[in-house]
Amino acid sequence: MTIATPAGMDITAEIKPAYEQILTPEALALVAQLSRAFEPRRQELLAARAERARRLDAGERPDFLPGTAHIRDGEWQIAPIPPALACRRVEITGPVERKMVINALNSGADSYMTDFEDSNTPNWDNQITGQINMMDAVRRTISLEQNGKTYRLNDKVATLVVRPRGWHLDEKHVLVDGKRVSGGIFDFALFMVHNAKELLARGAGPYFYLPKMESHLEARLWNDIFVMTQEALGLPRGTIKATVLIETILAAFEMDEILYELREHSAGLNAGRWDYIFSCIKKFKLDKDFCLADRAKVTMTAPFMRAYALLLLKTCHKRGAPAIGGMSALIPIKNDPERNEVAMGGVRSDKARDATDGYDGGWVAHPGLVELAMTEFVKVLGDQPNQIGKQRPDVNVSAAELLDFKPETPITEAGLRYNINVGVHYLGAWLAGNGCVPIHNLMEDAATAEISRSQVWQWIRSPKGVLEDGRKVDAAMVRAMIPEELDKVKAVAPNGDNPSYARAAEIFEQMSTSDNFAEFLTLPLYEEI
Ligand SMILES: CC(=O)SCCNC(=O)CCNC(=O)[C@H](O)C(C)(C)COP(=O)(O)OP(=O)(O)OC[C@H]1O[C@@H](n2cnc3c(N)ncnc32)[C@H](O)[C@@H]1OP(=O)(O)O
Ligand SMILES: O=CC(=O)O
Ligand SMILES: [Mg+2]
């Protein structure tokens, strides 16, 4: 079907009848307004990222910014947190798929981050049906009949928080004045028009998670978008609240500045550990001295990860802002109680460490983890909704500590094969429309898969990319392993005969052996869907 679009806007994808409720004149007008106002700045900021990357490739090292020392040294706090966001001990996350939205809202978690980003393939149908799911969830009319089961919302549900796409992603099906719009602006604007007032009437508000930013100027762009949107919709300034994921190494040097830019709209920071590790690899991929060990060895207790986690916590609480912990990739293991108990122990200790450090809450990947994560936070918080009052003057993190990238060993054949296997499996699932999958009993999404594919790229090129048996990782070795790992993937993936896995193997080979490092794996993949 066709719909009326604002002057200068074209939609190139199929508009199914149900999509009309989302692609309304008011919603599309806001997309067009925000795109015209802010697309040039998004492009400038992306160009600034590329320029910074060139300098890092040439050997520059990041440091805290001299020009913003007054912000780091100043005494200021973010605006008060609304009651609906005061208690976030456990936040469940997941793609915007209808059944999962209902299950997550009912999971017993305090809040729920619904995800248009890392755990979602951003094909047109997922984006628009995701928005339909949001509209129905906010109005509490969402329901589903599947496999003989009826899904509907409980009386008490988690507070909804939405993660739009990052600045790097376009929405290629919507053009304004002939140019693709930003995926993030598209997701945000549609959600705001359809749900902001409804959420406020129900005692919450429009709450967001902002992914993958690299600087406070990128946060300023979001803040300006919030201000314009609130004006356009007649909402008081400061209505929107957003938690920023600190998930790039460069943002770790600008945490105060990011909170400051968003201070009217801030709901704190989150330690997005998986993209953070990926960002470290990406930004220092050409540094001959930098090479991380097998992915499984790079944990939250690695020195650079510990420094980042503690700095985030200290920074947030100093500014009256919530500090939310990231996600352990461990998920429940079915039909193997012993291994399941080990996995649950891993989640427990992850949450216990965050709670004891002073974090106000943390993410879980699966409803089966809510209760045990809650237990760990309640052990520390008691009946307090958060521990924002807990200051950490004992924490003093230097630039050198943020850049202390260890462990470097071991790098093993098993670790290399694991990365190839996960990369091919995840890319194949993503191309088939599923952006979050269990692989080897771990949650895998775009961020975790990025670590796998960027390690393979780097191990081929780094002089330190040597297996513990002495063999240098090279392109021929990786090329030989890819078909072997593809066979294994096809044997275990539920839709293993889908041609997307063979295509994924081709793309994985191209990405890991080509001299060019793809900025994000989702960029070439997006052109295929
Ligand atoms: C790095 C980052 O960005 S982290 C944030 C992004 N990642 C995520 O959000 C992870 C989301 N998690 C998931 O997608 C899934 O849990 C997976 C893919 C990891 C595992 O999926 P599965 O193996 O299919 O889970 P499993 O079979 O155990 O699911 C059991 C039930 O729980 C539901 N479920 C599982 N995870 C979730 C979730 N995160 N939210 C809501 N419901 C969920 C399933 O829908 C299923 O429901 P049903 O019994 O009504 O059919
Ligand atoms: O988005 C979260 C992450 O760890 O990446
Ligand atoms: Mg991420």
UniProtKB/TrEMBL annotation:
Give a yes or no for keyword Transferase in this entry: yes
Every copy of the Malate synthase TIM barrel domain together lies at 159-404
Q: What is its EC number?
A: 2.3.3.9
Pathway stated in the Swiss-Prot or TrEMBL entry: Carbohydrate metabolism; glyoxylate cycle; (S)-malate from isocitrate: step 2/2
| Alphabetized UniProt keyword annotations | Acyltransferase, Glyoxylate bypass, Transferase, Tricarboxylic acid cycle
Q: Which domain of life is it from?
A: Bacteria
| Every Malate synthase C-terminal domain range | 411-529
**Top enzyme class:** transferase
Q: Which Gene3D superfamilies match?
A: Malate synthase, domain 3 (3.20.20.360), Malate synthase, domain III (1.20.1220.12)
Stretches of the chain forming a coiled coil according to its record:
none
- Catalytic reaction annotation: glyoxylate + acetyl-CoA + H2O = (S)-malate + CoA + H(+)
Q: Which molecular-function annotation in GO is an example for this chain? A: malate synthase activity
- Malate synthase N-terminal domain span: 8-70
UniProt cross-references to SUPFAM superfamilies, sorted A to Z: Malate synthase G
The record's similarity note reads:
Belongs to the malate synthase family.
State the name under which the record lists this protein: Malate synthase
Q: To which species is this protein native?
A: Massilia hydrophila
Its organism's taxonomic lineage begins at: Bacteria, Pseudomonadati, Pseudomonadota, Betaproteobacteria, Burkholderiales
